[in-house]
Amino acid sequence: MPRIPRSNTKSQFFHTMVQGIEKSFIFDNPANMKIYLNLISKNSKKFNVYILAYCIMYNHAHILIHVNSIDQMIKFFRCVNTAYAKYFNSQNNRVGYVFRNRYKSQEIFTIRQLFNTINYIHNNPIKANICSEAKNYEYSSYNEYFSNIKIINKDIISKYFMSNEIFKLE
Questions:
Q1: What is the pLDDT of residue 170?
Q2: In order of start, what are the domains of the chain with their CATH numbers?
Q3: 108 vs 29: CA distance, rounded Å
Q4: Is the pTM of this model over 0.70?
Q5: CB burial class (10 A; 0-12, 13-18, 19+) of residue 26?
Q6: Could you give the C-alpha distances from 126 to 11, 80, 103, 120, in angstroms and in order?
Q7: Is pLDDT at 31 greater than 50 in this prediction?
């Protein structure tokens, strides 16, 4: 079945997800999670992709992004996921696919959807019974909202937290 092109998108906000092939643990230790976060951070700057929230779990990752064009998202994920797959395969003496499919992306159209997605992403470790509070999970952006770590883009988030417009994103 052919892939559906992403060229007809109407939003600049996307909830994106990647998952290990056969749902296998591809972020199976802290070093792997940190490598993936470093790739996200480095390439977000390179491709002008603004990270608004993220959570790296053992077999998948959620990343909420803002882009000015769909091409930025495509190039960003191609670079991040290819680099991580090469690293993971070399570390595990394996060949072949690491990710189940290309990344999934779900457009975000409203402020309510944006906030619900941030909440959903940050509560993923709680739902998986990894921790009891989002603040206790090290590989999510939850604590970045209260610190000076610079993976997420607080400027875009604060624009919408302070906005009176609750129904439509720009």
A1: 44
A2: 13-161 (3.30.70.1290)
A3: 31
A4: yes
A5: buried
A6: 29, 26, 23, 10
A7: yes
Residue type at 108 in one-letter notation: I
Q: Measure the CA–CA gap between 32 and 56, rounded to whole angstroms.
A: 10
Distance CA 7, CA 54 (A): 24
Residue-wise pLDDT for 43-96, tens only, equals 999 999 999 999 999 999 999 999 999 999 999 999 999 999 999 999 999 999
| Res 53: pLDDT | 95
> DSSP letters of 57-112?
-SSEEEEEEE-SSHHHHHHHHHHHHHHHHHHHHHHTT--S--BSSSPEEEEE-SHH
Please name the residue that has the structure tokens 């959903």.
120
CB burial of 44-74 (b: ≥16 within 10 Å; e: otherwise) equals beebebbbbbbbbbbbbbbbbbbbeebebbb
Using alpha carbons, list the distances in angstroms from residue 98 to 16, 24, 113.
17, 9, 30
